[in-house]
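Quick note —
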Amino acid sequence: MHLKVNGKMRKYTGPAFKRLIDVLREDLRLTGVKEGCGEGECGACTVLADGRPVNSCLIPVAQMEGKTIQTVESLGTPEKLSPLQQAFLRHGAAQCGMCTPGMLLSAQALIRAKKAKTPQDIRKGLSGNLCRCTGYQHIIDAVQETAKKALKR
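Predicted structure written out below.
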């Protein structure tokens, strides 16, 4: 099976019903994808499939054939963070880091869809991602700042 992950075609030859999160972490070594609950409740494992947030812990890899998958590794590098990652850093929106990859990808999808206009929009858009550390306001502020800048471009 062929998967387009972070802009590159990747080949996977294992079991078709292996969870996407396991393929990404174990087979493709994309360890930015985090597993929290393993039940699709926390959003830590969120990746983008054709630009839409999905819980990679719930999806068999076979369902991803022909789709474009993005993990947090696609956003930026430690040397060159994306604008959203920079805003998370500036606002203190990442603490323990467990929810951060999923939060970043869900936020990125909101911003691209131009659905992050108000704090309420952002809260609704990120409602599938749980954070136990920040209290959410720092995350909302970072997303709102990035969304405003993106609208100006």
